[in-house]
Amino acid sequence: MHQRQECLQRYDRAQTHFYLDPPYWQAEGYGVPLRIEEYEQISEVIGKLKGKAIISLNDHPDIRQVFAGYHIETTDIRYTVGGGKGQDAREVLIFSWDVEAEPAGLF
User: Would you call 79 exposed, middle or buried from its count of C-beta atoms within 10 A (0-12, 13-18, 19+)?
Assistant: First the structure.
């Protein structure tokens, strides 16, 4: 079992909110590449949580397919590394619960 799964299981309660920020799919520079099967495993695990999870990932067709059963929102971002000028991109936020029934929000 991966450490991330152990953490999720250890702290999973109905009132728990998890934020997962795994390495972006097919992106360079992380030094820790994940296979698509690991994203599939994350998708399966968050579907079994008592609590709620939000995952941020790059907007890629493979990611959308893996998490197709979840509510997905898209946001525009600017990647900046090492103080460079940055690059425009899109990111998805994946919600593990029915946000129509229980809207996400701070208050």
Answer: middle
Q: Is residue 33 part of a domain?
A: yes
Over its C-alpha atoms, the chain yields an Rg (Å, rounded) of 15
Q: What is the CATH number of the domain that holds 7?
A: 3.40.50.150
Model confidence, pTM: 0.85
Nearest to 48 by CA among 97, 84, 87, 91: 97
Mean pLDDT, each 10-residue run in order, the chain (107 residues):
77 94 82 86 95 96 97 88 78 94 76
74: in domain: yes
